[in-house]
Amino acid sequence: MLKVIRYLRSRLKAQLIRRYLIKRNIVFDGLPAFWGPWPDIKNEGRMTIGARCTFQSFRLRQTMTIMKDAVLEIGHDSYLNDGVNVCATRAISIGHHAKIADMVYIYDTDFHQVSHAVPVRRVPVTIGGNVWIGAGSIVLPGSRIGDHAVIGAGSIVTGEIPAKSLAVGAPARVIRELDVPDGWVRE
């Protein structure tokens, strides 16, 4: 009897997740897993989620904002933890097998002008495959993080981080290269 109840619960949850995504016009290859509070998604653009992605919240739900004509792509088997905040005004791409830790902020805009002579910056962000972004990090407009890179906790990414490198600090700087085989996937 307990197995039947678990099965029915999982089927119901899957149907609710499907309806949640469809209602928000999100394209998905396979249903993501939602653990804890479900993400808050405001999609006025185009959002795609790859198969087997996981959104896990213990305390704070993720917030995804996709503005009109903007694109947010999340690759298959990616993981987004507590309080991740993503805002796309142009384009943000997160590769396959990406691991995004607690309270990471990813923005492709500065939101406001720094001065009257400087327009608001809106530059696409690209995060490669098998990337791990540590807790409390911020990824700013125009950032490009290469495949297999690791961003240390509390870092601020402002430019390009090469593939297979470890970057830390504010702004994030490469402190060493990582010996990572191309086919390897981080657990």
Q: What features would you describe in this structure?
A:
The protein contains 1 helix and 21 strands. With about 190 residues, it is mainly beta. It has an 8-stranded mixed beta sheet with strand order 2-5-8-11-14-17-20-21, with no helix packed on it. Strands 1-4-7-10-13-16-19 form a 7-stranded parallel beta sheet. The two termini are about 35 Å apart. The model has no long low-confidence stretch (mean pLDDT about 95).
Structural class: mainly beta
Subunit organisation of the chains: single chain
Instruction: Find the CATH topology.
Output: UDP N-Acetylglucosamine Acyltransferase, domain 1
Quantity of strands, as a count: 21
Biggest sheet features: 8 strands, mixed
Overall mean pLDDT stands at: 95
Q: Helix count, per DSSP?
A: 1
Topology:
Elements: H1 2-23, E1 26-28, E2 33-35, E3 40-43, E4 46-49, E5 54-56, E6 63-66, E7 71-74, E8 79-80, E9 85-88, E10 91-94, E11 99-100, E12 105-107, E13 125-127, E14 132-133, E15 138-139, E16 144-145, E17 150-151, E18 156-157, E19 160-161, E20 165-168, E21 173-177
Parallel strand pairs: 1-4, 2-5, 3-6, 4-7, 5-8, 6-9, 7-10, 8-11, 9-12, 10-13, 11-14, 12-15, 13-16, 14-17, 15-18, 16-19, 17-20
Antiparallel strand pairs: 20-21
